[in-house]
Amino acid sequence: MNQETFTQRVLARAQARGTAEAFAFVHETDAQRRVERLTYAELDTRAKDIASWLQTRGLAGRQVLLLYPSGLAFVEAFLGCQYAGAVAVPAPLPSAHDRHFQRLSRIAADAGIGAVLTTGEHAPVAESWLAGGGPDGVPCLATDTGPVGDATHWREPEPSADSLAFLQYTSGSTSEPKGVMVSHRNLMANEAAIQRSLGSGADSCLGSWLPLYHDMGLIGHVLHPLWLGARAALMDPETFMRRPVRWLEMIGDHGVTIGGGPNFGYDMCVRRVKDAELLTLDLSRWEQACNGAEPVRAETIDAFARRFAPAGFRPETFFPCYGMAETTLLVSGTPLGRPAVTRTVDTAALETGRLTGPVPGLAARTLVSSGVTHAEDFEVRIADPATLRDLGEEGIGEIWVRGASVAAGYWARPGATAETFGARLAGEDGTAGGWLRTGDLGALSDGELYVTGRLKEMIVVNGRNIYPHDVESAARSAHPSLGTGAVFAVRPHGDVRERLVVVLEVRGRGADAQAADHQDLLERVQRAVNEEFGVPAGNVLLVAPGTVRRTTSGKVQRTLMRRLFLAGALDPLLEVVEPAVRELRERTPVTVS
């Protein structure tokens, strides 16, 4: 018996659900707020219309680039690709002057796209890009201006379980974007894993502000409700960034039961939702508040739970989780009905690669568990990245994963695929298949997965492994006006030790703020880092909001920030830089893209 594909699943859901609501999208402008709705039957018809256009042009089996703002037109186009048997390639939509055009050109060339789908509003920008440096001879279609094909001529595709459903280009927090090959088998397996972890069903309502082209927004909040036959309420990321309360209002207004995003989103809600706005919120039906895509912080969970308890939010609603594009999406999650598990550990032991309990009078860290895995979905091991030895319980190493959700590899990159997806533990015969090397550091303890950082971003100072997000947290705590930060290390020529660099955004202080204020902040940051880690912070840059780069999922792009720093491409409000590091910056030729 052939395994069901995602396309077959959605076709069946559309027939069964008919006029039931599939999606609601909350639009907000300065003048008004309106809700756009889409039923299963309407979505089915529009997807078949787009699919017929793709099939007529021989694009079944070809890669199709999707350039959309967040909205229901994206959902229609993505499903249109599935209905056509084409391979969707979601990507962020750049503006006319955006640096992402370079990244987009690399994605288009790497994927070998056969067409571009977009909206009428953005078609001129897409066509200009295609004419001025994009791939030659690629048609561009606006899908939201009326019928584009003929749904009566649509033919149901016949993909196998191993056919590609889409290419998910990684957001590149530490490297060049690569296209993860997600098959129908991978997608169906991961949707089942998500359902097991969340306890979701046809009566669930998903709710998100995340970009729809990113794995957590796409797979978790668009494809999962379709897989279930449920519904979802969505909004634009910019709406959330302007006023985080709008997401919480949407959760109450639409009866959202499952929804979430990166840790920083919850931080924004705590900081920016006003007391008067809090009184209007109803979060009592929210059952699972997913928190993933970046390190989950205990202080964020505690602060959010306390702040929004009057609105009906319960601590056990938090769902810390872990996953990535290479595993389709989810790997682990917090069991239903249980509060997030935290563990306080000795900092010195953590820095030397072990989880041990705190020592009275010595520095400690509180880690948040990213939950557990289900045996039918994944195997997880912690491996020494150098010796490839299984470290077992309590050892900190690279997280390795194996299971049906793990993709086959990266599109057109056999070398990177073999290196990342074909790992073998020391002494293993390999008959069970290769392991995915996630590049993340973590530990297993009593079945709980603790994610501690990124392997490539680890800072080694005097033999100690220092996690950049811990330094960022300590630096940010020096003053309430300090915001997003990026911490990385550089090594001056001829020096044997790495030097810490701290870049921090200053909220509510423009470039014309008094230099004395910035000097005070800078010194506070230096003291906080030195007191917390015993490491001198000789290089600190205070910058304007929006300077620290993030990926589409909210991860701080520390590797890119390091390149920008060395290239002298940051414009600090105030900085202190050690002479040896200043010399390195002046002598290092760096190309920033």
Give a written overview of the molecule.
The protein has 593 residues and is α/β, with parallel strands linked by helices. The protein is 32% helix and 23% strand. The strands form 8 sheets. A 4-stranded mixed β-sheet has the order 2-1-10-9, with helices on both faces. A 4-stranded parallel β-sheet has the order 4-3-5-6, with helices on both faces. Helix 15 (468-476) crosses helix 16. The protein is globular and about 70 Å long.
Brief rundown of the structure:
The protein has 593 residues and is an alpha/beta fold. The chain is built from 18 helices and 26 strands. Strand 1 (21-28) and strand 2 form a beta hairpin.
Strand order of the largest sheet: 2-1-10-9
The outline comes out as globular
Q: In percent, how helical is the residue content? A: 25-40%
Biggest beta-sheet profile: 4 strands, mixed
The total count of strands amounts to: 26
**Rg for CA atoms:** 24 Å
Work out the helix count: 18
What labels describe this entry?
593 residues; 23% strand; single chain; 4-stranded parallel sheet; alpha/beta; 4-stranded mixed sheet; 32% helix
Task: Describe the secondary structure blueprint for this structure.
Blueprint lengths: L5 H12 L3 E8 L4 E7 H17 L6 E5 L4 H13 L2 E5 L8 H12 L3 E4 L4 H10 L7 E3 L21 E6 L9 E5 H15 L6 E4 L6 H14 L2 E5 L1 H6 L2 H9 L4 E4 L1 H10 L2 H4 L9 E4 L6 H11 L9 E6 L6 E4 L8 E5 H5 L12 E5 L10 E5 L13 E6 L11 H8 L14 E10 L2 E7 L4 E3 L2 E3 L1 H9 L5 E9 L8 E8 L8 H19 L5 E5 L14 H9 L7 E3 L2 H9 L6
Parallel strand pairs: 1-10, 3-4, 3-5, 5-6, 9-10, 11-12, 12-13, 24-25
Antiparallel strand pairs: 1-2, 7-8, 13-14, 15-16, 17-18, 18-19, 19-20, 21-22, 23-24, 25-26
Helix pairs in contact: 1-2, 2-3, 6-7, 10-12, 15-16
